[in-house]
Amino acid sequence: MTGLAPTANTPGLHISKPCPSEPATASAVCHCGASASAKGDGQVGVLVAGWNANHGAAHAGGGAA
């Protein structure tokens, strides 16, 4: 599935886990310029927690966290 990864022009968070026996992967790009990627269920969980705390909805008021 191409075209789902976030970019500077289309910031966001993308998570993939094709099947239960494969590790999850994630990538994130925020409009503030921050970016990250992770592989493995635990690391993806950490990335999502960081995104939720510091980016995404945290920027809803227009500020940069």
Unreliable runs, pLDDT <50, ≥5 residues?
Answer: none
- Compute the average pLDDT: 86
Major sheet description: 3 strands, antiparallel
Q: Can you count the helices?
A: 1
Q: How many strands in all?
A: 3
Q: Estimate the helix proportion, in percent.
A: 10-25%
Q: What is the topology, as strand order, of the major beta sheet?
A: 1-2-3
H and E string: EEEH
Roughly how many Å is the radius of gyration? Answer: 12 Å
Kindly name the structural category: alpha+beta
Principal-axes shape call: globular
Q: What is the terminal separation in angstroms?
A: 31 Å
**Beta fraction of the residues?**
15-25%
Polypeptide structure, described:
It is a single chain. The chain has 65 residues and is an alpha+beta fold. Helices cover 22% and strands 23% of the residues. It is built from one helix and three strands. The chain has one helix at residues 41-54; strands at residues 12-16, 25-29, 35-39. A three-stranded antiparallel beta sheet has the order 1-2-3, with helices on one face. A hairpin with a 5-residue loop joins strand 2 (25-29) and strand 3 (35-39). The longest helix has 14 residues, at 41-54. It is globular and about 35 Å long.
